[in-house]
Structure formats: structure tokens, C-alpha cells
């Protein structure tokens, strides 16, 4: 169990515990995965400078989406 605790499925299960109904958890997690992919960059693969560029681009995209 310890080996798989960090896999996406297990993380999703832990997040679902906080919701009262499976439907509300599913709605939240569906939108959350799309949004978190925008901000989640594999940090160990890129330099700090590029990470800052990616994050500022992601924030600009996020502000544009929210403003619409």
C-alpha cells in the first residue's frame, strides 16, 4: 500500500473523503484535474527560470478564463 500511495488514483481517493456525496466529489475532481494540469509542471525537468515563465503564463491563462 505504501508503494502506491502517491499514484494519482490514491490521491484522488483521499480527496474524495472530504465530500458528502460521490457526485459532488466527482464534479469537483473533474474540474480540479483540468485546472491543476495547467499549473502542475514537472519541476525536476526544467530550470527555475523556465518554471517562472510557465507559472506566469499559467496565471495569465487562468485570469483570462476566470474573467470570461
- The share of residues in extended strands comes to under 5%
Largest sheet descriptor: none
Query: In sequence order, what are the helices and strands, one letter per element?
Result: HHH
Number of helices: 3
Average pLDDT: 76
Give the tally of structural domains.
1
Low-confidence stretches: none
Amount of helix: 55-70%
- Which structural class is indicated by helix and strand composition? mainly alpha
- The rough form would be described as flat
Q: N-to-C terminal Cα separation, in Å?
A: 43 Å
**Rg over C-alpha atoms, rounded to the nearest angstrom:** 15 Å
Based on DSSP secondary structure assignment, what is the total number of beta strands?
0
Protein name: IS6 family transposase
Region (Disordered): 1-24
Write the layout of secondary structure elements.
Blueprint: H1 8-16, H2 22-39, H3 48-67
Protein name: IS6 family transposase
Region (Disordered): 1-24
Organism: Psychromarinibacter sediminicola
Task: Give an overview of the whole structure.
The chain has one domain. The model has no long low-confidence stretch (mean pLDDT about 75). It is an all-alpha fold. About 70% of the residues lie in helices and about 0% in strands. It is flat, with a radius of gyration of 15 Å. It contains three helices and no strands.
Amino acid at each position: 500500500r505504501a508503494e502506491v500511495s502517491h499514484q494519482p488514483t490514491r490521491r484522488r481517493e483521499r480527496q474524495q473523503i472530504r465530500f458528502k456525496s460521490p457526485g459532488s466529489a466527482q464534479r469537483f475532481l473533474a474540474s480540479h484535474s483540468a485546472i491543476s494540469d495547467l499549473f502542475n509542471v514537472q519541476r525536476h525537468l526544467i530550470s527555475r527560470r523556465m518554471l517562472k515563465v510557465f507559472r506566469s503564463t499559467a496565471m495569465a491563462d487562468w485570469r483570462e478564463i476566470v474573467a470570461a
